[in-house]
Design a protein that fits this description.
By secondary structure, this protein is mainly α. It is built from 63 helices and no strands. The longest helix is centred in the last third of the chain and has 31 residues. This is Condensin-2 complex subunit G2. InterPro entries: ARM-like, ARM-type_fold, Condensin2_G2.
């Protein structure tokens, strides 16, 4: 190829160009470059090539333009006789003709030439591309043999037609490269080559977002100055330039920022538009963008002069300064300050300090003293950024006076009334002192620091105290402050006991910073006693920091092991609890593993060697040893070393030395963590712990002890023996329940032979504690069974324990024993104070896990059970619900028979006899009632939670209605029990009553969740009656709580339990109406019929609240009588009123649900008419017409409510005429009539839905 091209070049330039344009540029680029660069200045081609290039380029462009023009739309010429002859027959499409032939024939029978035209256009573009590249080679020739004047026409021709080639990106790149090279080479006439190329390059950089394009634009920046930006034709280029100010790549790259700074100096108009663009981005721009704007502005300000500089200073920066002070929000002010920061960071540059002073001084000092706290805060932030604000041209006295003024204002702002401003002021003062200590007078420093340490450390606002500590920690970075801080830092010591966690964390961070400096001692700032007290009692993050602080003193790695262990033991003896917590975090905070292992051995030996050591010190040493073992056991080498050491330790002696529950738990933990196979001596002690753990459910220390015993027994494969012993206890208690209460036994009594599981424990470790015991009372046995039930529940909560329990051979016996104990617990909860919910909880938890295990065994993930098969969980819940129904004296199961009724009567008589014997006087009776009620409520709350959780897991799908009924009768029993008592202060403030209220709040939440789950289930249609009944009971509960616990408790119940479930309560109320579409179905719905028979009490109370509000409003209106409506303080129920207002707001958002729920209130009015309770009628109608529907006389989309109007309005009219003797009743009826009359008349005369009684006659 190169030879042919060389031959043609030697022949003539025209032949060379003709041969070149026939080749692909990609394939011939190297050859073309070699040939063109081989042309010398003396060669004839140096004079003939440029004009030939221009002609070839002109011809190629003309050819491309001709091909690009659309063809003429006029029909082709034809003979004069053609009009007289019929049109030629169109060729018939046939499969025998080739598709290519058919496609080339158009409607007139002519061939289509579009593919050929496209090919020719592409060839023309390739030719221009080759010619452009040849022109580029001529310009970049190292010897410059071609006259510039001869090349310029060809280049200009390509440049002027740049827009013509917009479809070919490669050709555009070649031409732009050519124009760019001309500019770099300072080609004569280069100013003629920028009008098209620069906009192209700028648009390309914005579109492709490549750094190389931005670099090219920056190198061509001087060319932009040749444009007249005041001319209207430059608008497109101006828009491209303005777009660059929001292009991220321009703001990130150094070349981009330099270019934008140059653009700001092109013209005043460009400057204004660019500044406006930047200003619009400040409110939502990122930090990096705003900082880039500041840098660009500074560079532009430094590079321009005259009116452009004045525009930046007075027109933009002055606006920013004022905006930073008067910004409407803190984030906006911070964003503005970031832009101004471009000048603040360059304040050492000439003229910047003077500029900042001139712009800020007139406004900043005045703004620091205005009444608006936001303005003061913004001004303070700006002052801290500009500090020290000074005029470089003023004398020393003026500078000192200005500095004193700024320090005075900072000191004054430390005591500002706005807490947020004090936070910024104290941190700002510490920052100013850190950076400018040398220029601030010592008296001013002393005054500011004294105020900070004396006043700010005791500020009422916790954020101010945190900022004070953080500010002092920052000030420590200046060594010049250390001398005065030595004196002042001890004043911050009390903050270690502050009640805010973040302050204590900040103080410890300060102490850690102090500890890194040799000039300070942390114990001079905070006393060791305060540190140890905090270490013993505070949260883990606090304890970890204190441990890190104390490690160099009490477990240093730079001393030998004996010295380190001695120091740590000294710490434990001084404060056992603190020492134990120190050991808990020592390894994680950097203590040596070798020292930690040595310390375990020293501590254990110390416990064994001390005969008369104090209990708390022994406990501290053992707890510390357990923590250390837990920390180092992950290292195999450490575990081996500790195992060898413990093998030589008499575990029984060590356990005997542990005289407290926590110490014994630690001994068990040590052996179970390190050496579980060497614990034969501890098995008997562990069994004693778990079988004699009465009261464990309320004792945190005992819980830890028992859990440790569980872990040890499971680790040494003694679980079967442990579980067998626990089962024996449950069986014994179940038998005694049978004897005492007549409970029918489910568990089969053992025949004395129980199959023993295999165990690694030696045969000598028999359960001696089970023999030789004296006879115990039922209460004692029951208390131990409660502890066993708690243990079973805890074992089921961990994976290993769960597997062991479910795999035990005694599982069924334990389950049946729990069943009997749970039955006795439920039935006797109303008459025995010592009954506890733990057996019931364990019974339910065990049934759930057995059911889940059964599903896993069957290999299915579906929790549903067929209708012919009842799971263990179904049977358990059915059994418990039967017990609850017997307890509450109300059976909801249609299958209950005479046997159950007989058992109920026998149990009732027995409970009455026990109650008579156990209660001796009125005070004991009142206390016992509260205790028993608390037991019942706790137990039923636990059951309601369990049922709700099971339904959430898709269990119990066959008894949804029964579950709703249980929740309803449970809450009804609570309301009834409270209703039998008079509200009194002693009851509402007792601890047991607080527990009852907590359970009631939880019960409300679980009941609401139960409604949600069942209403969303497929069986929701069948349970609408029960859901309606439960919702009514929940509303009654709110009123009951407000009456007996007060409005504050009721508000807590509504906010925490009712409000989140308000939509579900509304749907449950209206479920009956929503599920029935026809009017006759709605009128005869079971919910409304049931409501008429068992009218909800909350509707009565709602009517009374409405009547009271009406009376109050009428008494406040001048010239009107207040009426005769009675006002009792207990009937006002403000919390219940607010709850109903929330319900109204919710219902207004959905007219369909409003229609369904509105039927409830209108049915209440019907009941009032039937009972001649006209106050109820007025209250219900006032609530509906005034609050619910408001002033809508059409009652649009309330079809169900309109169907009930004929049952109400005509009767009210008739009753008004009949009640002439009862003045009060007649007034109530007239008011009720006035409420409904607009709606009635509208539908009588406007819609014709109703007719007047007179018309019907």
């Amino acid at each position: 190829m190169e030879k042919r091209l060389r031959s043609s070049l030697n022949s003539s330039v025209e032949d060379f160009l003709s041969a070149a344009v026939k080749l692909s540029l990609k394939s011939c680029k190297p050859s073309l470059k070699t040939l063109v660069h081989s042309i010398s200045p003396s060669s004839p081609a140096s004079a003939t090539l440029p004009p030939s290039l221009r002609r070839s380029i002109s011809d190629s462009i003309s050819s491309f333009q001709n091909l690009s023009q659309p063809p003429s739309s006029s029909p082709p010429p034809h003979s004069p006789d053609a009009a007289k002859s019929p049109p030629s027959k169109r060729p018939r499409r046939s499969s025998r003709k080739s598709s290519s032939t058919t496609s080339q024939v158009n409607e007139f029978g002519s061939s289509q030439n579009e593919p050929n035209i496209d090919h020719e256009k592409q060839r023309a573009l390739e030719s221009v591309q080759v010619l452009a590249y040849l022109t580029f080679l001529c310009i970049s020739h190292p010897k410059k043999p071609f006259p510039a004047a001869e090349l310029l026409p060809a280049i200009q021709l390509l440049h002027d037609n740049l827009i013509l080639f917009e479809t070919d990106s490669n050709l555009l790149s070649e031409i732009s490269n050519l124009c760019e090279e001309c500019w770099k080479e300072e080609f004569p006439g280069r100013e003629l080559l920028i009008s098209q190329s620069l906009p192209f390059l700028l648009s390309r950089s914005l579109r492709l977002k490549k750094k190389v394009d931005i670099h090219r634009i920056y190198l061509l920046r001087e060319a932009f100055a040749l444009f007249d930006f005041e001319d209207e034709s430059i608008e497109d280029l101006k828009l491209l330039l303005i777009r660059c100010f929001i292009a991220p790549l321009f703001l990130k790259t150094e070349d981009g920022k330099k270019f934008l700074a140059f653009v700001l100096g092109l013209s005043k108009q460009v400057l204004k538009e660019a500044l406006a663009m930047m200003k619009s981005q400040i409110s939502f721009g990122r930090k990096s963008m705003l900082e880039a704007y500041g840098e660009i502005l500074f560079r532009a300000w430094k590079g321009v002069g005259g009116e452009l500089k004045d525009e930046i200073e007075s027109g933009f920066l002055q606006t920013l300064i004022e905006g930073a002070i008067h910004a409407s929000s803190g984030p906006l002010a911070a964003s503005i300050r970031r832009v101004v920061g471009g000048f603040v960071t360059q304040r050492i540059s000439e003229g910047v300090e003077k500029l900042l002073f001139r712009l800020a001084e007139p406004v900043i000092f005045r703004s620091l003293q205005v009444a608006n706290s936001n303005v003061r805060l913004n001004a303070l932030h700006l002052l801290l950024d500009l500090f020290p604000l000074e005029d470089p041209d003023s004398n020393k006295e003026a500078k000192d006076s200005l500095l004193d003024r700024q320090c005075f204002l900072l000191e004054r702002l430390l005591v500002d009334e706005c807490p947020g401003l004090r936070v910024v002021a104290v941190e700002g003062c510490c920052r100013v002192l850190h950076l400018f200590w040398e220029i601030i007078p010592s008296s001013t420093i002393t005054k500011i620091l004294t105020k900070i340490f004396d006043d700010m450390t005791h500020d009422i606002c916790s954020e101010v105290r945190v900022s004070t500590v953080n500010g002092i920690a920052y000030l420590l970075g200046n060594p010049q402050s250390h001398e005065i801080l030595k004196v002042l830092l001890p004043r911050m010591g009390p903050l270690i006991l502050d009640n805010v966690v973040s302050i204590r964390v900040a103080v410890l961070d300060l102490l850690l910073a102090i500890n890194d400096s040799r000039k300070f001692q942390f114990n001079k700032v905070v006393g060791l006693d305060a540190l140890l007290s905090t270490l013993a009692n505070d949260q883990s993050q606090i304890a970890q920091k204190i441990t890190r602080l104390l490690i160099p003193s009490y477990l240093p790695s730079k001393v030998n092991k004996e010295e380190a262990c001695s120091r740590c033991i000294t710490l434990i003896k001084r404060s056992p609890v603190a020492g134990a917590r120190f050991c808990e975090f020592a390894v994680s905070e950097g203590a040596s593993l070798k020292h930690a292992m040595e310390l375990v051995q020293v501590l254990v030996n110390s416990v064994l060697s001390q005969d008369k050591a104090e209990k708390d010190q022994v406990e501290g040493m053992l707890v510390a040893s357990a923590h250390l073992c837990r920390s180092v056991v992950s290292e195999q080498r450490c575990q081996t070393t500790l195992k060898d050491f413990l093998s030589s330790v008499n575990a029984k002696s060590l356990f005997a030395a542990a005289s407290t529950p926590r110490a014994q738990s630690s001994v068990i933990s040590i052996f179970s963590i390190v050496s579980p196979e060497d614990v034969t001596q501890l098995v008997e002690e562990c069994m004693r712990l778990i079988t004699c753990s009465s009261g464990v459910s309320q004792d945190k220390e005992m819980q830890t002890q028992v859990k440790s015993a569980h872990n040890l027994l499971m680790s040494c494969d003694a679980f079967d023996h442990m579980f067998g012993s626990l089962t024996n206890i449950l069986e014994k208690t179940a038998y005694r329940c049978h004897v005492k209460f007549g409970i029918e036994m489910s568990v089969k009594m053992p025949n004395g032979k129980r199959r023993k599981g295999e165990s690694t424990v030696k045969s000598s470790a028999k359960w001696k504690h089970m023999r030789g015991k004296k006879a115990s009372s039922f209460e004692e046995d029951y208390s131990i069974a409660v502890a066993v039930a708690w243990q079973l529940k805890e074992l089921l909560a961990v994976v290993d324990g769960q597997k062991a329990v479910l795999g035990s051979q005694d599982l069924e016996q334990a389950f049946l024993a729990l069943k009997d104990i749970s039955e006795a617990t439920i039935l006797q909860a109303a008459c025995c104070d010592y009954m506890d919910a733990e057996p019931v909880l364990a019974y339910m938890a065990l049934s759930l896990h057995k059911t889940l295990q059964s599903l896993i065994t069957r290999g299915t993930g579906d929790s549903s059970v067929s209708t012919s098969e009842k799971s263990v969980l179904d049977e358990t819940v059915d059994h418990i619900l039967n017990c609850i129904e017997r307890l509450l004296g109300e059976s909801t199961d249609s299958r209950s028979d005479s046997v159950n009724r007989k058992a109920d009567s026998n149990g009732k008589r027995q409970r009455e006899r026990q109650a008579d014997v156990s209660i001796s006087n009125n005070d004991e009776l009142a206390s016992a009632k509260v205790t028993r009620m608390a037991n019942k409520v706790k137990m039923q709350t636990a059951l309601l939670k369990f049922i709700t959780d099971c339904i959430a897991m898709d269990f119990l799908s066959q008894i949804h209605r029964r579950c709703l009924t249980f929740a309803s009768i449970y809450l009804k029993d609570v309301v009834s029990t409270f209703g039998q008592q008079q509200p009194n202060e002693n009851f509402s403030t007792s601890n047991l009553s607080k527990d009852i209220f907590t359970c009631l709040k939880s019960s409300f939440s679980y009941a609401a969740k139960l409604l949600n789950l069942i209403l969303n289930a497929a069986t929701s249609n069948e349970a609408s009656q029960e859901a309606f009944e439960l919702t009514n009971t929940m509303f009654d509960l709110i009123i009951c709580v407000e009456a007996h616990f007060g409005s504050r408790a009721a508000s807590s119940l509504v906010a925490a339990a009712a409000k989140p479930w308000l939509p579900d309560l509304a749907l449950a109320l209206g479920s009956g109406t929503l599920l029935r579409k026809r009017e006759e179905e709605i009128a005869t719905s079971s919910e409304l019929l049931h409501m008429k028979l068992h009218f909800p009490s909350w509707l009565h109370m709602l009517a009374k609240v409405e009547l009271h509000q009406m009376s109050k409003r009428s008494s406040e209106e001048p010239g009107e009588e207040g009426g005769n409506i009675s006002e009792e303080p207990g009937e006002l129920l403000p919390t219940f009123g607010r709850f109903m207002d929330m319900m109204v707001t919710l219902l207004r958002a959905n007219r369909t649900v409003m229609d369904a729920v509105g039927m409830i209130f209108l049915t209440g009015a019907v009941v009032g008419l039937e009972r001649r309770d006209f106050g109820l009628v007025l209250g219900m109608l006032h609530f509906v017409c005034v609050k619910l529907v408001e002033e809508d006389r059409e009652w649009s989309q309330l079809d169900a409510m309109l169907t009930s109007l004929p049952e109400i309005f005509p009767i009210i009219e008739r009753q008004v005429e009949e009640e002439q003797n009862e003045e009060e009743a007649r007034k109530e009826l007239e008011k009720a009539k006035a409420l409904l009359e607009p709606v009635w008349l509208y539908h009588v005369y406007e819609t014709g839905k109703f007719c007047n009684a007179e018309d019907s006659e």
